[in-house]
Amino acid sequence: MCSRRVLMLSVVISAGLATTACSFLPKASKRVSGVYSCGQLEIVVSSVEDSNLIGVDYLDRRILLEPAESASGALYVAPGDETTRFWSKGERATLTMQGQTYPECLQPGGLEMPFEARGNEPFWHATIEGQELLLTRPYEEEGTRRIPVELQTANQHGRIFVANLDDWPITLTVARQLCEDSMSGAQYPAQVRLTVKGEEFNGCGGDPQRLFRGAEWVVEDLAGGGIIDRSRITIEFLEGNRIAGRSSCNRYTGSYKLGSEGITFGPMAATRMVCAPALMQQEDRFLNLLGRVVSAKIGGQGELLLSTPEDDTIRAFQSNQVSP
Question: What is the pTM of this model?
Answer without folding.
Answer: 0.87
